[in-house]
Amino acid sequence: MGARVGNMIFSSGIAGKDPATGELPADGAEQGRVAFQNLRTLLANGGATLEDVGRVTVFVKDESVREAINVEWLKCIPDPHDRPARHTLVHDLRGGMLLQLEVIAVVPDKPVAG
């Protein structure tokens, strides 16, 4: 789902597919919720959190899905002064996908015990 290079995490496309079942929800709101859950998991595995994300690219099947992403975006990143850069593109997603995320995050340096 991604790669850590040095102190940076680069994701592959993060879909709203349930990792336990492999199922892709039919509606955009649920796909958005699961996609952000999958994003949090990817970041945690690399030693980061949503606060460490510098850029998010959002691909949506059509403009109607944008609101589902916005709702989840505001839940996950409520502070308007501490949000990553975001770019949303309409893209011909396949296989029932209504949205997909790609992120770049910078893993914080751990303080040196002294």
TrEMBL record:
Superkingdom in the source lineage: Bacteria
InterPro entries the UniProt entry points to: RutC-like_sf (IPR035959), YjgF/YER057c/UK114 (IPR006175)
Molecular function via GO: deaminase activity
GO CC terms, sorted: cytosol
Name of a matching Pfam family: Ribonuc_L-PSP
Protein's name according to its UniProt entry: RidA family protein
